[in-house]
Amino acid sequence: MKQKIVLIGAGSTNFGLSTLGDLFRSPVFAGSEICLHDINPVALQRVENFGRSYLEKHRLPFVLSATTHRAEALQGSTFCVNSIEVGNRFELWDQDWMIPLQFGIRQVYGENGGPGGLFHSLRIIPPILEICDDILHICPDAWVLNFSNPMSRICTTVHRKFPDLKLIGLCHEIASLPEHLPQILGTPLSNLGFRAGGLNHFSVLKSISYVDSGRDAYPDVLHKAPAYFENQKNLLWWATEGMPPEMQATFEHKAWAERGVFKVILEKFGYLPITTDSHFGEYIQWAYDSADLQGILDFYRAYRFWCSQQISEERLIQGAGESWNVVQLMEGLVTGAAHEELALNIPNRGLIDNLPGDIVVEVPARVDGSGVHGIPLGRFRGGMGGLLLNQYAVHDLTAEAVLTRSKSAALQALLVDPVVTSVRAAEQTLQTMIQCQNRWLGYLQ
Length: 445
Prior knowledge:
Blueprint (H helix, E strand, L loop, with lengths): L3 E5 L4 H12 L8 E5 L3 H18 L4 E5 L2 H5 L4 E4 L6 H14 L11 H25 L4 E4 L4 H11 L4 E4 L6 H10 L6 E8 L2 E9 L7 H14 L13 H4 L11 H10 L7 H4 L6 H4 L2 H16 L4 H6 L7 H10 L3 E9 L12 E9 L2 E4 L7 H8 L2 H13 L2 H9 L7 H14 L1 H4 L4
Parallel strand pairs: 1-2, 1-4, 2-3, 4-5, 5-6
Antiparallel strand pairs: 7-8, 9-10, 10-11
Helix pairs in contact: 1-2, 4-5, 4-19, 5-6, 5-17, 6-17, 7-8, 17-18, 18-19
């Protein structure tokens, strides 16, 4: 079925190439136009060249175009897939992480939650709102699929500004459950029915049962998971290929690698997180004392190394990167063939009882020709519900700060964050970040 699919931020090595590779494998979209858009002409040209070479080599029935002009890219689009970043990604990321630490705010990472997540949000949401405004004016019926982080704060703000926009957030973290659960429980994935949810990068396994017997499998997960994670190989195996031997040696197996907070949630709260300390710990005030801080640093170093590697056509051929589920989602929307997605980021509207309706949550969803339908998860019991609810005011004030250009709201977003314990530290951090990132945060008044 011919569509026009626009990849916004296509110059990104991982996003652009892997999404192209996955789309090229889809018979549903044979004959469609895939338009690459990026404001960086050099990066865009590089991905376009790989794409054209691959199409010619395999004689695939797709039209590939590329442009640095957003309005041109959006004309006639039916799907807009967004994965932008702004500025020097890692330089700004380091500031998001280290400047709050310098003023005594003990955050374990600096991408999605905590103060680092706030500044990342304040920086990236305004240009995403500009993109969404253009979409509503140029191709208002298009589906907008977002990969950019911080996912929950971006999607919550966009839905408040543009409630009619068909925006869905996607993240690959849920893939950890199909990987681990069969090994933990010693049964095929086909014999497990499970659902997970919460907030993006702050989600847990909500329920699980054995298909053959209908029996609740969660007691077995809680009993068997500790031994499994004691012996699991290091999570960084995917990133260490090509590393110098002396660097690779630092990533040898360690029990519960990057899973200190994870272990507390599993053992004290009775829920299995779907991600590790570098993400989950960003949202929790006691995480700094529980997290595997060395493991987080190792993960960050390995991720930076992996991202710095030269693009190869092999990465395009492999596909199935962060876009592993986006093509299936688009196929379901186009063909009407119903299926269930393990995790999508959509407005709450009664899907999680512990959270208000105007925040975007991560839940399973049914997809068919009529759209995306979130599957209610009910209430999260005990402390897990409290941890989720702690984030509502943070997300609410982040959206307010962006939409009203309010420095006061940004400060309040820091002061309601569980990770922040000092007014002076919050004020100093905010002022320093505005100075350091004035190009992106100078709009705050």
